[in-house]
Amino acid sequence: MPRGDKSAYTDKQKRQAEHIEESERERGASEGTAERIAWATVNKQDGGGKRSGSARKATKKVARKTTAKKASASKATAKKVAKKTAAKKTPAKKAATRKTAAKKAVKKAPAKVPAKKAAAGKATQKSASRSTAAKKAAKTRAAKKAVRKTAAKKAARTRAGS
């Protein structure tokens, strides 16, 4: 079958394509463009020509069923894995890990730290459960805040000096 042959399409599909083509021509599309859009629309709706024989239709249905089965099977296994990992950590263990993480964070913070480092440290302590983008945004905000604070101090000194 040569490329562009429409013999595999049913009469109904041909009528649909003709109607779509007329509509596209009314909207101002060129003849070639209207025809291309019409057949692309029919293909999208029906998945191609339907009159190509029973074997092709059967294989299409089987292919759809197998992909649907594979998708549902992969979803089921993902759910099982998620349940197992959630069941492994009991609430008591989760609480214990949170407490130890909080203790480590407290131990890491030294008594006197410059303003920039303290702000960055606070941002990282709070963002333990944040995404990478959120952590980066928080760090940027903290850095900008520190810059503004430094600029305000400098402006206050210049005002006091003059």
From TrEMBL:
Q: What superkingdom does the record give?
A: Bacteria
Q: For bias kind Basic and acidic residues, which ranges apply? A: 1-29
Give start-end positions of Low complexity composition bias: 111-135
Q: Where is this region: Disordered?
A: 1-162
The biased composition feature labelled Basic residues covers: 53-68, 77-110, 136-162
Cleavable signal peptide: none
Q: What is this protein called?
A: HupB
Look up and give the organism this protein is from.
Answer: Stenotrophomonas indicatrix
